[in-house]
Amino acid sequence: MALIVAFSGNTWATDAPDLSWKRSRFHCSPAKNIQRYAVEPAKKSGEDKLPEDVTRITADKLAGKSTVSAVATGDVIVERNDETLNANWVEYNQTIDTIKAGNEFTLTRGDGQTIRGQTLEYDLKNNKGSVQNSEFEAEQNGRRLQGVSGSIAMHDKTHSSMHDVKFNTCAAGDHSWYIQASELSTNHDTQIGVAKHARLVFGGVPVLYTPWVDFPTNGNRKSGLLVPTMKVGSDGLETELPYYFNLAANRDATLAPGVISDRGATLRGEFRYLEPNYSGSLNVKYMPNDQRSQYKNRYEAKFSHSHIFSDKLTGGMSLHRMSDDDYQRNFYNTTSSVNLENRAWLDYHTPFLGSTLNANLTVLDYQTLPDSSGNTDKPYAILPKLSANWQKNHGITQYNFNSQITRFDHKNKQSGTRMVVNPSVQWDFSKPWGYVRPKVGIHASRYWLDEFGDKSARSASRVLPMVSVDSGLTFERNANLFDQKYIQTFEPRLFYNYVTSKSQNDLPNFDSSENAFSYGQLFRENLYSGNDRINSSNSLSVGLRTRFLDAQTGAEYFRMGIGQKMYFKTDNVLLDGSLTTSARKRSDIVLFAGGRIHPNWFADMNWHYNQSERITQRFDAGIRYNPQAGKVLAARYKYGRHEEIYSGYFDKLKHIDLAAQYPITPNWYAVGRLNYSINPSTFINGTMGLEYRNPCGCWSVSVVGQRYVTGLNEHKNAFYFTLQLKNLSSLGNNPYETLRLGIPGYHKTNEVTTK
Fold first, then answer.
1. Are the beta carbons of 526 and 535 closer than 8 angstroms?
2. pLDDT tens digits along 365-390
3. 85 Cβ contact partners less than 8 Å away, ≥ 6 residues apart
4. Could you give the CA distance from residue 150 to residue 134 in angstroms, rounded to a whole number?
5. Which residues neighbour 354 within 8 Å (Cβ) at sequence distance 6 or greater?
């Protein structure tokens, strides 16, 4: 036991703590609320660091008997180990290492907690004490807590309890919301806090009550009830009460019973696991008795797993299933046919001939759910596919070898096995100002087809030589665009492509479809995806692209381009495999443009022009005003001359899509989206709402309504309300995903910072 005495000529004073928190503020002024601390930490003496268990008292006046007791008055600073006390006066019993502090005091403890009050009794040796009518503040792992308490009992260095307590995680001085509890106990060893008879008070109004709740004080996971979720829509009120299970450091689960008022009881569960070599999750939703459907025992299940078996072998699986054909239309805002993937795979890579051989084994099947008209088109199941790819660079020469063998299976179509071998060699003659890349290859395929209906079992093959030459130049100059200085590039590109003509109508179509016509498609070898259809080609694609780059960083601000393909032969392979002739000498023209046209404006456009008929085939254009986070206006128009509107029905398509997130006051934001089909005339999706951001960042609230199409002449409604409390949780049902997907450039209001 040791005591060091010093004297100070400074003055120490503070206002009496405000314990009421009666005036809960919905509005706060950040300029007036700029306080680093709700309770200022106790100031130190500035003297040298003390040895362990040595007490130093610094004061204006000090009286008492050496080694027995002392009374210090006037700007008193008591320091011991990692604790500091400031007070107007202190009575120190050196025999048992206890102090009494009065009038006003501030105590900063070793765990980062600061307590401010009127009187204090404290055992310096055992870190025990009691306080009446105090304010407190603590910060740990970036999470801060402030509050007031009628009494505090400090049991030791890591255990304390408070009575008649109010606390929140807001900025200093902001009491917009708080939790009021009859008792709050904390244990810093276990990092657990327990509150009894706790109420969440928002704007002075209690909105939630629980007789008992425990929570982690450091933000870590802990088992317990989560905040209920609520949503209002066409199916009535949807509520869930989730319970979280912290099973282990690498495993957890959530079980959420709920009710949809117009449908019935629900149960949702999630299980997650994580190991050094594997991880995965299981999600299940279950409704035993849906009052609005003919189906009972409705469910949706998802399972995913990924695994590292060795440094060469990885794998995994993903499974997804729904109980009935109507499930996705009843509970998701979709009108199209849905193919739910069920996949398992293995990936293997190993050194081979101076490079890496990559191999893959995949099994894939689908559950196909019908669209709003009841139509389905189930893809072939892959049972299985084994593929191998190898690539090696040797100087300017690149060797490529791609191969696969796949078993395709379908209940209502001819099944079979397909083998594909596609070797190629490419040479790369490149300079900073341009390149030429000739390539030669062979696409060989072999089919073994099963007997199906009146079709007998048979085999077929196809071998197609392929030659291409890709070339381009890059020119640069200094340029001005919209009063800004840039480097402008001019990038002409020529792509010659030759593929032997061969009818393919004797071959099945397991996985091919026609790619959308675009600028990028002009410079690909094959018009089709997959391996069942290979286009006949003797053509030259011509393109010109220009880009505007930042002179310092090279960042791209704007680009535009135009391209077309010239045909040197008339042969044409259709998707059904037939070989036809076409009198066209040129393809359609494609033009694109997009980027930043002003510091606050973004625009893009794609135009597909049918040259032979001199008419627009497809066109879409969009513009977005986005001067800062939280302020965005967007509009898009889409046109298609001959598009599939519904399954098997084609017509002109004209869509407009308007979206906005815009501040109507410094802290109120309007959000909305209108997606409307002009032809055919129908409403697709509409969203409208208001969001409020507390200027001190302590809370935000969103109220959003949505109406969306779910089928032919069928719509559903949804209503979202969420109250987000800083570092605590959110109440209601969050519309964030709906707004993020519907409004380009959308930002959460509580993440918006104003200039």
1. yes
2. 999 998 767 778 899 999 999 999 99
3. 42, 76, 77, 78, 79, 99, 101, 105, 106, 107, 108, 120, 122
4. 7
5. 392
Q: Identify the bridge partners of residue 52 per DSSP, sorted by sequence position.
A: none
Q: Is 566 helix (H, G, I), strand (E, B) or coil?
A: strand
Q: Taking 80 as the threshold, does the pLDDT of residue 691 lie above it?
A: yes
Cα–Cα distance for residue pair 306/317, rounded to 1 Å? 7
The amino acid at 649: Y
pLDDT band for 13, please (50, 70, 90 cuts).
Answer: very low
Average pLDDT over residues 549-556: 89
| Predicted confidence (pLDDT) at residue 43 exceeds the cutoff of 50 | yes
Q: Residue for token digits 């949503």?
A: 231
Type of residue numbered 299: Y
Ordered DSSP codes for 649-678: EEEEEEEEEEEEEEESSSSEEEEEEEEEEE
pLDDT of residue 21: 67
Residue 150, Cα to own-chain centre: how many angstroms? 43
Query: Which residue in the block uniquely carries the two structure tokens 């204090």?
Result: 120
Parallel, antiparallel, or unpaired: how do β-strands 224-225 and 243-248 relate? antiparallel
Give dist(CA 107, CA 356) in Å, integer.
64
Supply 317's token pair: 């699986």
Residue 224 — very low, low, confident or very high, per pLDDT cuts 50/70/90?
confident
What distance in Å separates the CA atoms of residue 470 and residue 490, rounded to the nearest whole number? 17
Q: In degrees, to the nearest 5, what angle opens at C-alpha 233 toward C-alphas 227 and 235?
A: 100
Could you tell me which residues are beta bridge partners of residue 24? none
Are 217 and 158 in contact, with CB atoms under 8 Å apart? no
Distances (CA, A) of 166 to 22, 29, 179, 199, 248: 11, 22, 6, 9, 32
Rounded percentage of the chain residues whose pLDDT exceeds 90: 64
Say how far apart CA 709 and CA 717 lie, in whole Å. 9
Give the containing element (helix H, strand E) for 738: helix 736-742
* 151-155: long-range contacts, CB 8 A cutoff, minimum separation 24: 152/115, 152/117, 153/129, 154/109, 154/122, 154/127, 154/128, 154/129, 154/130, 155/128
Query: Cβ(240)–Cβ(256) under 8 Å?
Result: yes
Q: What does each C-alpha distance from 237 to 88, 234, 261, 716, 723 come to in angstroms? A: 58, 9, 5, 13, 17
* Residue ranges with strand state E in 309-415: 313-322, 338-352, 355-369, 381-394, 397-409
